[in-house]
Queue: 2 jobs
Job 1
Amino acid sequence: MDAAPDIDAVADESVVVIGGGFGGLSTACYLADAGADVTLLEKNEQLGGRASRLEAEGFRFDMGPSWYLMPDVFERFFGHFGRSPEEYYTLTHLDPHYRVFWKDGDRVDVLPDMAHNRELFEAYEPGAGDALDAYLEEAERTYEIGMEHFVYEDRPRLRDYVDRDVLRYSWGLSLLGKMQGHVEGYFDHPKLQQLMQYTLVFLGGSPTNTPALYNLMSHVDFNMGVYYPDGGIGAVVDGIVELAEELGVEFVTDAEVAGIEGRYGAFAVDTAGGDRYLADIVVSNADYAHTEQALLPERKRQYTEEYWESRTFAPSAFLLYLGVEGDVPELAHHTLVLPTRWEEHFAKIFDDPAWPDDPAYYLCVPSKTDETVAPEGHSNLFALVPIAPGLEDTPELREEYREVVLDDIAENTGTELRDRIVFEETFCVEDFADRYNSYDGSALGLAHTLRQTSLFRPPHRSNAVDGLYFVGGTTTPGIGVPMCLISGGLTAERIADTI
Ligand SMILES: Cc1cc2nc3c(=O)[nH]c(=O)nc-3n(C[C@H](O)[C@H](O)[C@H](O)COP(=O)(O)OP(=O)(O)OC[C@H]3O[C@@H](n4cnc5c(N)ncnc54)[C@H](O)[C@@H]3O)c2cc1C
């Protein structure tokens, strides 16, 4: 995608966008800006998709994403419309970026200060400070080449890779091995390996199934920084909705689409409530499998049920949103709690699905940075444990697992929460499936395994229905808020190129 994608060809088209996640919001902005008449239909009562907000008893939780990474992507997005993120929300650079507790009692903080991080690495392994510099240099190179040539530029066909420019970036070939081997080439200490690999959870993968080119995530977290938008990620949703409204997008919430009929120039999109919307073009940001399997007749699907069953889906999650009396001084805004050997946890996600007995998890305490997310004298905290998609999820299992997580937090971070919880809610596999129509209750969609990266992900344009397009985490470039924003631009370009 160029800095200024040429999508003027969509002017005068009418478009229905199904789903108001970041991908749907983004593509709606690009299309409306180019002159299209855009209506966005969202199933739920609020916009933002996985970035929904839960508000109760004076607490306001971001229900999904909480790490604001890759600020350059947001600048480029708003920049396309002659705006900047600061016109819509304010960012705070977090310090520390995050804290890690290992379950052997060890604890480290990763800071924006690289001298500190080098010393930290050196303390675990002589020479690891220099190795960190070398690793991050490579990660930066991967980021720069990868973003310009593979992320902002869509390459939906194999032949798009067979040109001289692309082959010149032979870095790609060496980075198609697995993350595990790549990281071992730099660091021997398992804890240092974990620090370079935890970001894979953002991509829904594990060190043994994710290609090494995703080392670029370490450039994102160490060099570019970890930010917090005041008001939470929900403030970013509000900002993009405001921009979309300025551009003329019409939003309809509580509008679950039940069926898509027709083709380019003559679509009818029906909602469960009995309303019908007519459009020239349809873009679905709803889960890809749901759109094809539930909204289209069989002859208009590109993929079979077997195709979806054979894919590797990213983890689901057990989420525990807690309103707590008092402070939680042991925790940072972002805290990771990791077993010293985490292979078993990954195995319980990808190989042999089960609720993990010794979980690796993430704790988010935005009230450390933002006093508006909790009543005075209280903390806003959520725990996120990645678990296998499709896992059995019952109220009893959740109750049992709540105990496991609260015990683990107390034991490994010294934070005793039980007696001071004043608000509590869980969200798990069944909720992902019900609220977002997510396949198997995956939190994130298709994992970024090598066979599910780039042209191996489902395409933006349906090859079975003329005029139907897709946007969001299951298509390219993939998972995460910045990627879904980029996906919106790529889908808009694909529409302009193919109508
Ligand atoms: C717990 C969690 C933590 C995360 N943490 C981070 C993070 O820290 N940083 C980060 O960058 N990313 C994070 N992510 C990933 C990120 O949130 C997602 O990749 C991204 O938000 C997905 O956007 P999307 O465009 O794919 O749309 P989605 O968010 O999936 O939205 C799709 C929308 O379609 C709607 N829909 C579905 N079916 C229909 C229908 N039939 N009719 C109408 N509407 C329909 C859904 O209700 C939903 O609103 C996290 C995700 C989760 C779940």
Note: The pocket of flavin-adenine dinucleotide is lined by residues 18-24, 41-44, 49-51, 64-67, 69, 256-257, 285-287, 290, 317, 384, 436-437, 443-444, 472-473, 479-482, 484 (CB under 6 Å).
Job 2
Amino acid sequence: MEDNPRFFDLIGNVRAMRRLRTDPVPYDLLMKVLNAGVKAPSGMNSQPWSFLVLRAPAEKQWFADRYKAAIESRFGSSDLPSEDDSPMARQFRALRYQMDHMHEFPLLVIVCGLRDWPFKVPQDERVGLAPPNYGAIYPCVQNILLACRAVGLGAALTTMHQVFEEELMERFQIPVEYGVVVTMPIGYPMGRFGPVRRRPAEEVTYFDRWGVTAP
Ligand SMILES: Cc1cc2nc3c(=O)[nH]c(=O)nc-3n(C[C@H](O)[C@H](O)[C@H](O)COP(=O)(O)O)c2cc1C
């Protein structure tokens, strides 16, 4: 069977796009990428995802204010020197841009997962709330990232909402059966899509015993 080279090109440059334009994203395009998300696999095909999309300026502002406070409480509020061109410094600047402009991005998609105890937790130890079904939500999120790339939208996976998750659930009336897994700002990108930087699989793959790489 022949390779599909476009698939490999696409997967190789699905970077976190943190600088987004303010132009609106049509409803049909949003549904196209979310419908790619829901094609993901899930245990027993339980499809434990739901999306809450923030579009209204006041709701996005509410989220952005708390997101900024959460980042600053963790990383501080000072900028890195602009002459620092290391990948880390560039990522940090992109994170700051994202944080400062979060309220202007057209869509903030909050990906929620139905809570579900992992099999390994025995019945009598299932106390309190189960975690959301991360195992199914992340493939869904990755499908959305790929679909965004395919239609020319930029998106990033963010998780800092964890710091204010309770408040978030209350504000948006998210039922307690769900947990918030990821928030994805989505919009048309300001910059170009570029290649991801990753260690090659050959370096992280072992055969028969840990540490034994292919000859
Ligand atoms: C579990 C997880 C949590 C992440 N949290 C954030 C986040 O809070 N904010 C953000 O901008 N990116 C977040 N990312 C995206 C990573 O920072 C990004 O994938 C990584 O730095 C590699 O960059 P690239 O995908 O652009 O190549 C997260 C990714 C994962 C898988």
Note: The mean pLDDT is 94.
